[in-house]
Amino acid sequence: MKKILLTLLLTSSVAFAAVPCQNAKDIPSFSVCAYKYEETATKTLNHTYKKALAAMEKEMPEYETGKTASDYLIESQKLWVQQTEHECKNPAWNFGSSASGAISLCRASKATTREQELRKLYLR
Q: Is 21 within 8 Å of 100 (Cβ atoms)?
């Protein structure tokens, strides 16, 4: 039964195109792999976010709103975190015992996308 659930998770449309951890032999090893993948993606995102924030702090003019470029980046990152948590914890696709792995893969995918966005928007 566990192999069937893992197979469904890895082949479903919720799983990502280049599925990390696809060689996991069981749900616990899948969850550990997914967590490590999330951890790496999050570290990369945090590093890029800090670089982007430093770049925006150099641009200190206050806009008509009374906010600086770094204020906007901080606010958008907080909103991104909220939306990511909301979407990745959607119970409609959390697949029972493999839910923690699915949540980790969701967060990792979103962190990778966000990191690319930050690079393009703030570190050109």
A: no
